[in-house]
Amino acid sequence: MEQEWLYRNYIGDVMKIINTLENMDLSTSNLVESYWEIDILKDIYFIPKKVDKRKSYELIRDEEFLRLLETTVSFLKKCDVVKVVEELFHEFEDDTKYQLKDEKLYLILGCHTTTIYSAVVNSEEISVLCLESLEGNMDKLKMLLAHEFTHYVRKQLLDCDIFETSIGERIITEGIASNYSREMVPSKTDSFYCIVSEDTVSWVATHTDFIRNYIKENLEDNKLMRDLFYMYADISFPVRSGYVYGYFVVKKYLEENGLHVKDILGIDWKEILKV
After folding, report:
1. Any bridge partners for residue 105, and if so which?
2. 81 to 84, 107, 112, 114: CA distances (angstroms)
3. Three-state SS at 107
4. Taking Cα atoms as reference points, which of 61, 55, 67 lies closest to residue 24?
5. For residue 44, which of 167, 147, 145, 127 has the smallest C-alpha distance?
6. Can you give the residue range of the structural domain that contains 181?
7. Are 184 and 142 in contact (CB under 8 A)?
8. Residue 150 within a domain
9. C-alpha 63: how far from chain center
């Protein structure tokens, strides 16, 4: 696997700012300016996540971000993240017997807007992990990387856009990913694996028939992608419910058939959704 460790380019500057500047406003101001001086950050983070300079100032001044930043800096001082990530991917490869190739993962310090995501930059698909989202939690790092690992493998096996081809494919793709996180980091909550609130998990658990009926006419197109998977969807039910629905559907399929995620990484989504 080809890896790009972007954070090495500026993490030292971030830590210097936090350690030496007494005025937090000045600190955050310098942090924003240092971010925007890095051209590649604009391409892989600010533009895809629609965060302009004014918005980045607002986000970085938020007390929650400052707490996460302090935790993240402390985490990076004690942990060789590059080595840990490499070891985790090797663990996933050994477990599934699938080898990754030609994938690029960027580790960055974002503005506390997301966890891990895919983006297309200069016609090349990449993954970006925002280190502040980990809150210094090694289990969360493993959970997120396990999730992303299945996306890498599934893209290789199916050779298609697993995120936008159809709502059926996206539901199963995300369900496979969250269930692999469950297998690799056991004994956590469903909300932990799906990266949503407990309320969202509870709602989906009691409204599976509603979601099934909601999507049944659109499984083979992508018209409902925003409704089920976007954070800011204009809908009457919890946002990102598609992640939880996929998690439950795939979990049930695995249990009923005595399988593990590694057995279904290349499965046709129609097999699970019985289309």
Report:
1. 127
2. 5, 9, 18, 19
3. strand
4. 61
5. 127
6. 167-273
7. yes
8. no
9. 23
Distances (CA, A) of 251 to 21, 40, 102, 118, 185: 49, 38, 29, 24, 15
The DSSP output letter for 57 is H
DSSP string across 8-28: GGTHHHHHHHHHH-S-HHHHH
Question: What gap in Å lies between CA 40 and CA 42, rounded to an integer?
Answer: 5
| DSSP, res 141 | H
Residues 127 and 18 placed together within one structural domain of the fold: yes
In this model, does residue 21 exceed pLDDT 60? no
Residue 148: phi and psi, rounded to 5, are -70, -35
Residues 85 and 195 in one domain: no
pLDDT tens column, 189-243: 999 999 999 999 999 999 999 999 999 999 999 999 999 999 888 999 999 999 9
Above 80 in pLDDT, residue 3? no
Q: Which of 118, 136, 154 delimits the end of a domain? A: 136
Q: Output the six-digit token pair for 87.
A: 């070891």
